[in-house]
Fold this protein.
Amino acid sequence: MRNKLTHVRNLGILAHVDAGKTTLTERILYATGTTYKRGEVHDGTTVTDFDSQERDRGITIFAAAVSCAWDDHWINLIDTPGHVDFSDEVERSLRVLDGAVVVFDGVAGVEPQTESVWRQADRHGVPRIAFVNKMDRAGADLDAAVASIRERLHPTPLVVQFPIGQEEEFTGVVDLVHMRSLRWASDTLEEGPVPDALLDEARRRRRVLEESVAERHAGALEEFCADAAISVASLTAALRDLTRSGDGVVVLCGSAYRNRGTEPLLTAVVEYLPSPVDVSPRGVARDRPADPAAPFAGLVFKVVATATGRLTYVRVYSGTVHKGESVLDAGAGRTERIARILRVHADRHTELTEATAGDIVALVGPKAARVGASLCVPSAPVLLEPPAATEPVVSVAVEARRAGDTERLATALAWLAEEDPSLTVRNDAQTGQTVLSGMGELHLEVAVEKIRRSRGLEIGVGRPEVAYRETVVSGVSGLVYRHVKQDGGAGQFAHVVLDVAPLPAGADFVFRSAVVGGRVPREYVRAVEAGCRDALSEGPLGGHPVTGLAVTLTDGATHVKDSSELAFRFAGRFGLREALRASEMTLLEPVTEIAVTVPEDELGGVLGDLAMRRGRVTASTTRGSTVTITATVPLSELFGYANRLRSRTHGRGTFTVRPAGYAPTPSRATAG
Ligand SMILES: Nc1nc2c(ncn2[C@@H]2O[C@H](COP(=O)(O)OP(=O)(O)OP(=O)(O)O)[C@@H](O)[C@H]2O)c(=O)[nH]1
Ligand SMILES: [Mg+2]
């Protein structure tokens, strides 16, 4: 069964923090007979939240892989974290998945981080199914959730179910494709006819579904016009096509916690989401199909240190790899030996003798292959597109409390950064401190705690600081820079004239050449551009990275003997450095969009506090007696906000944050 590629599904579970991803994963494992008891997040007993910090904090931090079988299909599933600080972990998973189930809170609808992961999935072209969860909660409303999906995420929702009963009484769903009821009595699923009382509603909703499908699917439209209805087979086929093309999103509902809705969701995964043969991996040549007989190629998307040793997680895209073989890390040009191949089940593993196209496995043996590495047969190397890494925005200084531990801490930090490319470690030349940078306060806190727990080190941690950038407010034109060394021996001669101008917010760097008459040969122009990029790493205000500028090379001169690419690269670098010193620059700081939900009576205090944190309120929505405030707040002002909000609202307020780019700092921050 496992080898039939069309019967494999590689999917991720994605959503905002707390939507119920881990609980749903737990129920999927239970429904498929993979586990025999149902774990709970709040008891710290789930399969995929196995890390001690995940259990203590009640949130997912690391993406965990599990596999299960359903209806003659093999499903490899990755439970991802929902907290924004771990969005790089989601990005790495999305890179190797063929489909996803996006979980929505039936009360809250689309939440900020769901919107972010939705966009991530859009970028990767990953087909999705929507699961509106928590239908047992007071205030859960499928139609409202679907409306928010339509408004905020812009797909065409194809709603194939509606709930039977609300809150405590939520006992099942009407399946609009097969026009039947599915009810759960304790843990068993009972199929039956649509209850009389719901028949009209079911017919109306089926009609809406048929119309939405017919509008977007030529085959279904033809049938709809001819017969004024669409058969079950055609409807299913059309839903599959629309899901895979991204023209529609099938919506189901249920309650993971109460174990309602899992089985139909699994059936939808098998019916609608693509198999490895239906998707083309980016970067793989056409002659490298998802076929076990093709030459082997796979992408490393996760590296973890465990008691078993270094585990290298690989998505196999083509061919077959066997235990004991040597493979090529194509980017690094290094050969790695595969000692063992493991099927991963969260923190447990089973040994395999081979892995084939479509598989997600962990390898033991590779010593140096990093996240993003392409592994392949040495005779047919191929480079696969690595997952994108995000620039860290928050840093803390870390030091070993015991002088003798410095070396061990350095080793542990290096390991962390290898496992998680969104963490970086560097030594600050000025202060001599070791600086750990990451995506947010929680990200760094988790990282440090991980070292404490796994290595038993005592670590001192400094105050968090944000990563500033610099940008051009008004530039210069006609800046002349001459790089000349002609004092005997091989000389250097490069002469450039540069214009510098600001770009609109969000744009990074543009380089143009306006040199006429071949006064600077093309290879030297490229060298000037490379030099300018070198100069962007340290701005004149405080040595921060420079962004948001256009540089134009307007003129230059060469020397017959002494000009070289190196000389022009220097000229570009020092020329732009001088131009930036002459330009009006400003400091940029990372800003976030924060959504705070509080009871109405706490609103005043929360607004006052946000104002003190330089927050700018952009929206406010009231729902019953709670208010949600959306505001733009500099990241540096949000350190410690979680505790502050908790104490101010006596634990009744919640908030979510997501990155909103960079904005100019007020002058007081510039001074510091
Ligand atoms: N009432 C209700 N609660 C649920 C349901 N599903 C999950 N929960 C609860 O919601 C909380 C969060 O669930 P998780 O499964 O940890 O959510 P998650 O999406 O994995 O969260 P992160 O991994 O931290 O992003 C837990 O307390 C669950 O018991 C549901 O269907 N109904
Ligand atoms: Mg989770």
